[in-house]
Design goal:
Elements (H helix, E strand, L loop, with lengths): L9 E4 L2 E5 L11 E3 L3 E8 L2 E8 L5 H10 L14 E2 L6 H6 L7 E4 L6 H6 L6 H20 L2 E2 L8 E2 L13 E2 L6 E2 L27 H13 L3 H6 L16 H14 L1 H11 L10 H7 L23 H14 L3 H14 L7 H20 L12 H10 L55 E6 L2 E3 L6 E7 L7 E4 L6 E2 L1 E2 L7 E5 L10 E8 L2 E11 L3 E4 L14 E3 L2 E7 L8 E5 L4 E6 L5 E8 L9 E5 H5 L24 E2 L6 E2 L12 E3 L2 E3 L5
Parallel strand pairs: 13-20
Antiparallel strand pairs: 1-2, 2-4, 3-4, 4-5, 5-7, 6-7, 8-11, 9-10, 12-14, 14-18, 15-16, 15-19, 17-18, 19-20, 21-25, 22-23, 23-24, 25-26, 26-27, 28-29, 30-31
Helix pairs in contact: 4-5, 4-9, 5-7, 7-8, 10-11, 11-12, 12-13
């Protein structure tokens, strides 16, 4: 990238003045974040901070079109960077004339908070409550995209920001950036090279399954990061290295055991399902993660909080906080900010003073930023002491740069600290007083006399025979009754199959009469006791396929139509081409195979489509239109039949060399022509 800005350099964009910010950790350098294909510069204006992304991959009108299409998504919490402007010669002629390298740069909101990649890289811990809260927030955001028919396209740790770690009141604790790869319903796919990262499935993703594997890995990382053994085993800037994917190596076992120990068997089973996926299409849908994630009650058991130091003992952190408070009261906010940061670095993750110190740091940074914004920029006296220059640098500090130090903030309201350790509030507006909250009742604790390690398989097609699954563990001979339960469905009593042992329990389902639509997770109960996290998914479809045979070159079959969106085929109401036609399907749609009978036909249900209104519709279709195999061959070109011929031999030749004597008997020769040695003679026979 050729753009080399100077600190405080002014850029006029849309009539608004922006200044390049100084890097808070590198004095004398502008605040620039380098990426693989771009660089992001932090700018400030009277309204706050923004990001200017300079990239060279896309330099044409498609980038502006893409920005316009994703603009409405900025209303979704966590997708604020979808609100963007593409700088072009057409809309910013003055800027691109003086700074041509800024043409097709992207101006968008600045996202506060550290990227998830930095926490992994520095092995910064999360509490159990934080792990679960962030995992749930990411899942909800990805499900929102999936339901809209969109994919991010390049989910990885560097593109997941964690504003919730530095601001518990943030609109969304998770934010996604680098949205240039986003595509789907109503959003074109930019011609970018295939991204490379340790979060991509070994088999390239297609269609709306593009985020399932990557998103699942990020959710699992967040859930496991509260475990010290998981943090210590991380590969580098991600937990798994690329070579670890789908391999049951050491990291797989470390993560699985930590997930099962902390969050129960259900989450560990989702890792198993992920590792058994031959393609991204076979990965669990993102909405399945919503159903399987544990309740917040499972995160309430935290490491014991160390008791506060007795007043008679020396508390170095408390002394730092007191010094910082004094500095602020004496009108030295920059020095106070630095002292508060030193105190934060020394506070244990579960110290009740962490939350208050964090909020005070935020208030100081805003105070310094406001001070800078109101300072006149003309008639500067460069003989002002160097100390004022230091203040200017500090006031430009960004919340994101201290995000790593704040990553241990509890998501719950911090415990009030003792009077000797209270930090003097500096915010101009007092925080609202929380409403009284009823004391939460403890969740019931079930004591199991047996141990559950694994369930195989974890999902069952309800029309398969026999309908069985196996529970592996210890002391399973004590099990007398087994039941599956799910909200809204009658409980399913299971039969314990002969041959079960102390380490393996075989369970069989009866012929099901309950109506199922899709895949429903059922909780397993043994001896009338729910097994935490143990679930079996029952599904009414055989498999999931991507439509591959709806192609324009198959128009000769009479099954392919075309409109402005391309070729499509229609479902039938019955497995016969003479039945009524119904909904359209197109290549790339995901469908669930409900039945493969009669031969040559599928009964399908549309799972995902560019037209969201079609999701859930069902009908029959010929198999070749789904699988693109055994396609009817093109019709053989028809050759008109050869006209009847009357063959004869000459009897004799007349004196004229151009005449031959022939004799024909018993044939109606009306309208016939005669050909002799290729000479066609047209005359009526008489």
């Amino acid at each position: 990238m050729s753009f080399q800005p100077a600190i405080d350099e002014q850029l006029i964009i849309d009539g608004i003045s922006y200044q390049v910010c100084a890097h808070p950790a590198l004095p004398g350098r502008p605040f620039i974040q380098e990426g693989q294909y771009s660089r992001v510069v932090q700018l400030r204006t009277a309204g706050g901070f923004v990001a200017l992304k300079i990239q060279e991959q896309i330099r044409d009108q498609t980038l502006s079109t893409h920005a316009t299409q994703i603009q409405p998504l900025s209303a979704i919490p966590g997708l604020q960077v979808a609100r963007r402007m593409i700088i072009t010669t057409a809309n910013q002629p003055a800027l691109t004339t003086t700074r041509p390298e800024l043409e097709y740069a992207i101006l968008m909101p600045w996202v506060y908070g550290p990227p998830w990649q930095e926490l992994i890289h520095h092995r910064r811990p999360l509490s159990a409550a934080q792990s679960l809260s962030l995992a749930r927030a990411l899942t909800d955001l990805l499900v929102t995209l999936e339901q809209r028919g969109l994919v991010h396209g390049d989910l990885q740790a560097a593109h997941v920001m964690l504003p919730g770690l530095i601001d518990p009141g943030a609109a969304a604790p998770i934010a996604l950036v680098d949205l240039e790869t986003m595509h789907g319903v109503g959003v074109l796919r930019l011609p970018l090279p295939q991204p490379v990262s340790p979060y991509h499935h070994p088999v390239p993703a297609q269609g709306l399954a593009g985020d399932r594997f990557n998103g699942a890995l990020l959710i699992l990382e967040l859930l496991g990061w509260c475990d010290e053994e998981v943090r210590n085993a991380a590969a580098g800037d991600s937990f798994f290295a690329h070579d670890d994917l789908l391999s049951t190596g050491e990291r797989y076992h470390i993560l699985r055991e930590a997930l099962a120990r902390r969050w129960g068997l259900g989450v560990a089973q989702m890792l198993d399902r992920l590792w058994q996926s031959s393609t991204p299409m076979n990965c669990p849908q993102l909405k399945e993660w919503q159903a399987i994630l544990p309740s917040p009650a499972m995160a309430t058991v935290e490491a014991p909080v160390p008791p506060p130091s007795p007043p008679s003992l020396v508390d170095p952190v408390g002394q730092l906080i007191a010094d910082a408070t004094t500095l602020h009261e004496q009108g030295q906010p920059a020095q106070a900010l630095a002292t508060y940061r030193s105190a934060l670095d020394r506070l244990p993750a579960h110290d009740p003073r962490v939350g208050q110190v964090m909020r005070t740091i935020d208030s100081l940074e805003r105070e310094l930023a406001d001070l800078k914004a109101t300072t006149p920029s003309t008639n500067l006296n460069w003989s002002v002491p160097v100390g004022i220059g230091v203040v200017i640098i500090v006031l430009l500090a960004v919340l994101a740069t201290i995000g790593l130090n704040r990553s241990s903030i509890p998501t719950t309201e911090p415990t009030p600290v003792s009077p000797t350790a209270v930090v003097a509030p500096t915010a101009t507006v007092a925080p609202p007083t929380p409403s009284p909250t009823a004391t939460p009742q403890p969740s019931p604790v079930y004591v199991l006399s047996f141990q559950i390690d694994r369930i195989v398989p974890t999902d069952l097609y309800i029309r398969s025979t026999p309908l069985e699954f196996t529970v592996q563990g210890a002391r399973l001979a004590d099990v007398r009754t087994a039941t599956l339960r799910a909200a809204g469905y009658e409980p399913i009593a299971l039969t314990i199959v002969d041959g079960s042992s102390d380490n393996e329990l075989r369970l069989r389902l009866p012929d099901l009469t309950i109506p199922l639509a899709g895949a429903i997770p059922f909780t397993l109960e043994l001896n009338d006791t729910p097994v935490p996290g143990a679930a079996v998914t029952l599904r009414d479809y055989i498999s999931v396929r991507t439509v591959a045979g709806v192609r324009a070159e198959y128009r000769y079959t009479g099954r392919i139509e075309e409109d402005g969106l391309g070729p499509f085929a229609r479902l039938y109401t019955e497995p016969a081409t003479t039945s009524a036609l119904s909904d359209p399907i197109r290549n790339g749609d995901e469908v669930e195979i409900l039945s493969d009978q009669p031969a040559g036909w599928y009964w399908i249900r549309i799972r995902t489509s560019n037209d969201q209104s079609l999701s859930g519709r069902s009908g029959y279709i010929e198999r070749w239109l789904i699988d693109n195999t055994d396609v009817p061959p093109p019709p053989t070109p028809t050759i008109p039949p050869e006209p009847p011929r009357l063959r004869f031999v000459k009897l004799s030749e007349a004196e004229d060399a151009g005449c031959v004597l022939i004799q024909i008997r018993g044939v109606n020769t009306n309208g016939w022509v005669v050909s002799i040695d290729g000479l066609r003679l047209r005359s009526a026979f008489d």
